[in-house]
Design a protein that fits this description.
The protein is of the alpha/beta class. It is built from 15 helices and 8 strands. Strands 1, 2, 3, 4, 5, 6, 7 and 8 form an 8-stranded mixed sheet that branches. Strand 2 and strand 3 form a beta hairpin. It is globular.
Length: 316
């Protein structure tokens, strides 16, 4: 399992050596070696990422340096105005949301935010929302409907926070309410799984007219560790569970759970934030163009049809 967990080690070493050479002054004779290392990195990254197992894909989806919601907003949005609080209990930093301009369109944007560094991760609760986070999202959904704004959601969470306080304040009801309200929202909803899509904590932002996943993201009813603990009472079988869960973007695209897979830069989104954000932006713009002429009734009917069809099968 050690090798499977450390598959990126050769890439990290190459990136470190490239960064060292990039710090040298121009004309110092290092350019040929820098070009050679860049070529080696490109070749090695294609080799490594071309044969990831589902468990390795899970590790990439959880990478601490993948772009988070605020990174996508920074790269793609203008006139960002963040909205805080659920007007009932508190503000939840694990979900960020607000209004912005995206390539000439006014939109509402809502997504999970895990945070970087120990202090921010604790502040963001590691991207695990409490009920007030989902109620803040619902407040923004309703605002978007009132002003006829498309909704863009970005999913990246291990799941809803399972603490006692969250349960006391109605965690399950808050998630269920979002599912009901999103299903009937009278504006376009475009969902993108950017990293880890975990259980109801992800689905509470996941009812959309279009659902996309980044190439190395995951989307599942439970984490591989949780699945292994329940099925086999052994978390060490998490890699086996990851394969059984069919949680990768390619699996879910083949099963019809999502609409498309967004290719990531070579080496994953964490290797090139700008390129990753631009690729997400391009597919969001295309989807918005496709949905812009649809009536509210058509949007709702399409959403109902999409999610009603999930899990359909034929007996032979």
């Amino acid at each position: 399992m050690a090798d499977e967990n450390n598959f990126e080690a050769p890439l990290v070493d190459l990136r470190r050596r490239i960064e060292e050479l990039e710090g040298y002054p121009e004309g110092s004779g290092h350019e040929a070696e820098l070009d050679r290392l860049r070529g080696a990195l490109d070749k090695k990254a294609r080799e490594v990422f071309g044969k990831l197992t589902p468990w390795q894909t899970t590790l990439v989806a959880r990478h601490f340096d993948r772009p988070y919601t605020l990174d996508y907003i920074d790269h793609l949005m203008e006139d960002w105005v963040e909205i805080h609080g659920d007007r009932s209990y508190a503000d939840d930093p694990a979900i960020v949301g607000g209004l912005a301009t995206f390539r000439g369109r006014s939109v509402a944007v809502i997504g999970h935010q895990k945070g970087r560094g120990t202090k921010e991760r604790i502040f963001r609760n590691f991207g695990q929302p409490r009920p007030e986070g989902y109620r803040k999202a619902l407040r923004i959904f309703k605002m978007a409907e009132k002003f006829n704004l498309p909704v863009l959601t970005l999913i990246d969470t291990p799941g809803a926070y399972p603490g006692i306080g969250a349960e006391e304040r109605g965690q399950a009801e808050a998630i269920a309410r979002n599912l009901i309200e999103m299903a009937a929202l009278r504006v376009p909803i475009i969902v993108t799984v950017t990293g880890e899509g975990g259980s109801g904590g992800a689905l509470a932002l996941g009812v959309g007219n279009r659902v996309f996943m980044l190439e190395y993201s995951i989307y599942s009813v439970i984490s591989p560790e949780g699945c292994a603990a329940i099925l086999w009472k052994d978390q060490d079988r998490k890699a086996e569970a990851a394969s059984a869960l069919r949680l990768t973007a390619s699996d879910l695209n083949r099963l019809g759970v999502i609409d498309a897979v967004i290719p990531e830069p070579i080496g994953g989104a964490h290797a090139d934030h700008h390129a990753a954000c631009q690729r997400v932006g391009d597919i969001l713009e295309q989807a918005l163009n496709e949905l812009s002429e649809a009536t509210a009734e058509e949007l709702i009917a399409e959403r109902h049809h999409k999610f009603s069809a999930l899990g359909a099968f034929e007996e032979r």
